[in-house]
Amino acid sequence: MPRTILAGLAGGMTMNVTMLLTFRLLGFGWNGGGILLSSPVQSPKLIAIWTQIEPLPLVVANPAPIIIGMMLFGIGHAFIYRSVSAAWPTGIFQRAVRFAGLLFFMTFLFWEFFTPFNQLGEPLPLVALELLFWATIAFAEAFVIASVCERKVSGV
Fold first, then answer.
1. Residue by residue, what is the 3-state secondary structure of the chain?
2. Where are the membrane-spanning stretches (predicted)?
3. How far apart are CA 109 and CA 39, in angstroms?
4. Of 49, 101, 120, 138, which one has the greatest count of Cβ atoms within 10 A?
5. In contact, 146 and 95? CB cutoff 8 Å
6. What would the pLDDT profile of 2-21 be if each residue is shown by its tens digit?
7. What is d(CA 75, CA 12) in angstroms, rounded to the nearest whole number?
């Protein structure tokens, strides 16, 4: 159990850092102006939600609860990994790829389809870019969780 929690905390931290590098740095920009806000094809509704309509999303106005939430999701993901990984071929990379696929298809693909595409009218090219970001996030988190969970402990 302690290793699973540690794997989840490491995975959650990885998810936060990777989201910072993809969505914040490239997508929204440090001070605005990222491709997701400056693209001429972007949905005005999405831009307004992220920059104008009060209250702004917590991740913009007060990111601490979101960062903590992602850490908790990481712990949950590690427990899911522990429950399903035994059925997969051995090896960190092989298991990480499978787990990243699980996270991507069951969570991130659904999120992008249902919210940015469906509710916010985001155009498909930008949804595709966000899916690339989510795939990167899913693989980074899955690789860290698999690495911690599968690491062999030296006998003492």
1. CHHHHHHHHHHHHHHHHHHHHHHHHHHHCECECCHHHHCCCCCHHHHHHHHCCCCCCHHHHCCHHHHHHHHHHHHHHHHHHHHHHHHCCCCHHHHHHHHHHHHHHHHHHHHHHHHHHHHCCCCHHHHHHHHHHHHHHHHHHHHHHHHHHHCCCCCC
2. 7-30, 64-84, 96-114, 126-149
3. 21
4. 138
5. yes
6. 999 999 999 999 999 999 99
7. 7
Structure tokens at 69: 């939430």
Which are the contacts of 64, defined by CB distance < 8 A and separation ≥ 6? none
Give the distance from CA 32 to its chain's centroid.
Answer: 20
pTM: 0.91
